[in-house]
Amino acid sequence: MRLRRGCPWRWWVPLAWFCHPALRTPGDVCSGVLPACGGQLDPANRVLGHPCLGQRIWSRGSLLQSGSMCSRCGCWVWSGLGCQVESGGGVMCPPLPVDPLGGSGARGSILRVIHRRGEAQAGAGLGPGGLAGGQGWGVPALTCLSPRQTVEHGFPSQPSALAYDPVLRVMAIGTKAGAVKLYGAPGVELTGLHKETATVTQLHFLHGQGWLLSLLDDNTLHLWEVCQKEGCSHLQETRSFGLPGRPGCSPGITRVTVVLPMSTGVVACLGTEGGAVYFLALPALTLLEDKTLFPDEILQSVPDDYRCGKALGPVESIQEHPRDSSRLLIGYSRGLVVLWEQSTRAVQHVFLGNQQLESLAWEQSGKSIVSSHSDGGYMVWAVSGAGQRTQQPVMSTIPYGPFPCKAISKILWRTCESGNPFIIFSGGMPRASYGDRHCVSVLQGQTLATLDFTSRVIDFFTVQSAEVPEGGFENPRALVVLVEEELVAIDLQTPGWPTIPAPYLAPLHSSAITCSCHVSNVPLKLWERIISAGEQQSPRLSSAAWPIDGGKNLAQEPTQRGLLLTGHEDGTVRFWDASGVSLKPLYKLGTASIFQMDCEHNDSLNQAGEEEWPPFRKVGCFDPYSDDPRLGVQKIALCKYTAKMVVAGTAGQVLVMELSDEKSEHAVSVATVDLLQDREGFTWKGHDRLAPRNGPLPFAPGFQPSVLVQCVPPAAVTAVTLHSEWNLVAFGTSHGFGLFDYYRRNPVLARCTLHPNDSLAMEGPLSRVKSLKKSLRQSFRRIRKSRVSGKKRLNASSPSSKVQEANAQLAEQAGPPEVEMTPVQRRIEPRSADDSLSGVVRCLYFADTFLRDAAHHGPTMWAGTNSGSVFAYALEVPSQEKFSERAVEAVLGKEIQLMHRAPVVAIAVLDGRGNPLPEPYEVSRDLAKAPDMQGSHSMLISSEEQFKVFTLPKVSAKTKFKLTAHEGCRVRKVALVSLASAGSEERLENCLACLTNLGDIHIFTVPSLRPQVHYGCIRKEDISGIASCVFTKHGQGFYLISPSEFERFSLSARNVTEPLCRLEIARLQDTSCFSNSLTVTPKLPQANGTHVPRSPEGQHSPTDSDRSPEEHPDAFSPGPIDSPNSSMENPLDTTGDITVEEVKDFLASSEEAERNLRNASEDEARLTGILIK
């Protein structure tokens, strides 16, 4: 055991020794804890997948009896542990076996057991066996925390394969990253990931048996099994197979081109580049060498004049006879098609095609086949027993001829009771005119529809009955097409073949996502109004049910309605139902119609002209092109109680909107706010503002704009907030911030935050004239400054350096080798005041709190900037009855400057009980408790480097945590979340969730700022994922793992959204040997192939094991009390990083200001050297 110096009550103990004694063999599952523990040893005797990591916590007490149960986490203490209390109050643990990985160096194999002094008397307030229970610990939030990734929303990135099981009614999608995703009814989702990072080229179901074959581009075949565990289904890889090469031949001839699992479920056929057909036994994936069919056997049945010394080419298609499973239709690239009888190993029929073959399909009765070719045509061949050879097809046509056309890559023939069959094929477009179109054509009789997609077609299938009686018809219900960027379902039973709205797999990136926002607990009335507005937007959609409805969703119905809003590059805002596993689109809001566009947007592609040929019909919603980059949405704010919304964009436009159930036609009021305030010396070099349209404009039901506020200069909006109870909206850019009264439609406040050297702020994000010379000059200045300061620090003659050197030598001599040193704080360089873009407004906040004095509270507005400045304004807001009579007034109350000038990421005010202030209208509508206005309020300022809590109204430091100095990272996202306890839903804990630039999430208690959990969530290289992260109010979050996918994670032990489903499978043979060893582990976050595998505990980042203790301190415990990072609620006698001169109070009287200054001076004289930096 290794004792951390300065904290003698903290121990590191191997996790494996807290499990049941029976857990000793690698692979054993822990049985000595309550159900769902899931502890498992790997071959190195490390415990894997343990959800209790970091949650077994004992307070100092009497003897910890063996076999006792922790009342907090419900886990049993390992027999023979026997921790005892020493006479001095410390904790003495008995000797334990050595961790096979070398003590505490491997974070994935240890459990941190923390003993705290002074929490309770020995034996008092303890649970069974002397274990602490309830409130004895002082870290109650740990029972509410269980961080992990849960589900992926959106469309899989880079799909490459598609399969459908008509018996189970589920489909599977493979990706280029090696992921396999299985979908059924909404909520039924299974995910697997190949061990090899290779592209999935083909997927094939063994119908009705829960088996899935996947072919990778490395020529390996993998068998996946849907296993049942604890009542839920899971996708597990069970076998893999690689086709051996033929002696003396090139390895390429055994490359698999076609895979066909037979309907019997016991054999799979593999077609290869060399023209051979191999047979595999299922599910063992063993090669049946005696059944291999080589091209030489086929050539014996081919006429000599057709043979001509040419090879048959690769096998392009293998199709099983619909009525006789022993007969196979085999097509070769050269154009030859043969009907092969397996039992007699003979060629029954030969079809002598003379055009390069692409695809084959059977007619349901087995009397005809259809073949598609590289010239853009297809042929129908008759299958009869009269002759063994057929040289001419029954019909041959090029649908989009006569000019040269592209190949038809796949074709289907589906019989229909109406008489005319469906001929469905992909490709075949005229090469010169429409060779760049991605189309699937549907032909029935004389009716032809050319479905035009905006991305490449991957594959497609039809949905029909699994069993078709002899002489019956297939009658396909729907056509499902997978393209690179979306999944589209077409209703084939409704005239006009409309699109069926998908309940999942929606293309989030139909236009690039630029921002996102989550709204929790949406009222039912607002929810229904949004759904109604969305339904009126798409009247041409089919009313048919989603055709892929296999499996059963076992997850409980969501207890609340969650709304995810995404802003896009084309100026749209999309509303998504994020309540459950499936992310369903609800409504689409467009803002482009309000402005004058150089190129007016039109939907001419949606409706083809009557004389146009081919008869294109645009389907799908993926449209990555934007009319104007200035339309991009940057910030969104929504009030769920008043249905008011603010949308801010790239060109400084701020739109105030209100939900209306009726269509209307009205003019939009336009107001301009000059944020430069006539400051001289600044010239805007960026893009122009968007010109609004004049006169009344028509608006459909939904959110309709009422006011347009245009910032000057028209820079991108960087922050926005809405307070619908006060009828105010605040917005900020890189030049300053403004306050607007949208009820009276007039500006209230405009403040410029520019520094005289902020030249880059005047160039805009779309400008290309940024000064490289100035950037280089500033970089060299920083390097020179750091070198000079480093030389000063290394001056050996200085007394301080000698003291530090002596302390270091003393520590090396006195400290035993097992002792770990307290992490050294990193030195944080103060940022220069003239850094470019220092005036960017990072956050805005409204609060009803104490700003003038401690006796009177009122409306306030807070603004934080990139240079560490905080502006606080006292607002004079009239009552609702006098809104039209009196105007809102804003008076500057305080101006604060952080010492290191770190950007201010977030600001929040806590009431007298330490709880965040409720949202507007929550208290008046009895939806939340009224805030405590009797006790003193606190202000939480989150900068990129640290968190600080100050008392109000005097702005004196109360608590702080220096994250950058402590962890070496910077804050990117911050949110106050409310977490419910795993044991009781009524017990809520307010915590501060922080995402860093390393992708780690840190959880702190508020207002004490005690660190609780350090969770590695996002790869530090994933810059877009970190930038896109958004937290929910109840401890969940979303971030982009690809342009089209959100990863959902949960920090809460109770509020979890994850897929729980079951597929009913009746296999033809027993496969218990494959599923008995299945160990269900938490969902891995790399299912899309973009993540580095992590250990399932999730309590550490992927690089934790590579960090030294000095680089990575304890993740679950606060620092020692005497540490500079101590977060105990001890009143500090200084203002931390804020000096007296840097807090300007504009509201206090002259006598009070002098008194405050005198008291502060006395405190500084009395407590020198306590200023915390």
UniProtKB/TrEMBL annotation:
Domain annotation Lethal giant larvae homologue: ranges: 397-498
- Locate the Lethal giant larvae (Lgl)-like C-terminal domain: which residues? 852-1088
What are the start and end residues of every segment in region (Disordered)?
786-817, 1084-1139, 1153-1173
Q: Name one GO cellular component term.
A: plasma membrane
Task: List localization entries.
Answer: Cytoplasm; Endomembrane system
Extract the signal peptide range: 1-24
Which residues lie in Polar residues bias regions? 795-807, 1123-1137
GO MF terms on file?
A: GTPase activator activity; myosin II binding
Please report the residue spans annotated as repeat (WD): 563-577
Q: One Pfam family, please name it.
A: Lgl_C
Q: Please give the chief subcellular localization of this protein.
A: cytoplasm
Question: What keywords sit in the KW lines?
Answer: Cytoplasm, Exocytosis, Membrane, Phosphoprotein, Repeat, Signal, WD repeat
- Name the residue ranges with Basic and acidic residues bias: 1103-1114, 1153-1166
State the InterPro entries in the record.
Answer: Lethal2_giant, Lgl_C_dom, LLGL2, WD40/YVTN_repeat-like_dom_sf, WD40_repeat_dom_sf, WD40_rpt
Q: Which terms under GO biological process does the entry name?
A: cortical actin cytoskeleton organization; establishment of spindle orientation; exocytosis; Golgi to plasma membrane transport; regulation of establishment or maintenance of cell polarity; regulation of Notch signaling pathway
Write down the superkingdom of origin: Eukaryota
Q: Which family does it belong to?
A: Belongs to the WD repeat L(2)GL family.
State what protein this is by name.
Answer: LLGL scribble cell polarity complex component 1
